[in-house]
Amino acid sequence: MSDIANSNSSRAEVLIHALPYIQAFQGKTVVVKYGGNAMISSTLKAAVIQDIILMSCVGIRTVLVHGGGPEIDSMLKKTGKESRFVQGLRYTDEETMEIVQMVLCGKVNKDIVSLIQQAGGKAMGLCGIDGGLLKARRLHNQDLGLVGEIESVDVPMLNAVLESGAIPVISSVALGIGEDAGRSLNINADTAAAKIAAGAGAEKLILMTDVRGIFRDIQDEDSLIKTADVAELEELKQKGIVSKGMIPKVECCRLALEGGVKKAHIIDGRILHALLIELFTDEGIGTMIC
Question: Looking at beta carbons, which pairs linking 40-47 to residues 24 or more positions away fall under 8 Å?
Answer without folding.
Answer: 40/70, 41/270, 43/272, 44/269, 44/270, 44/272, 45/115, 46/115, 46/119, 47/272, 47/273, 47/274
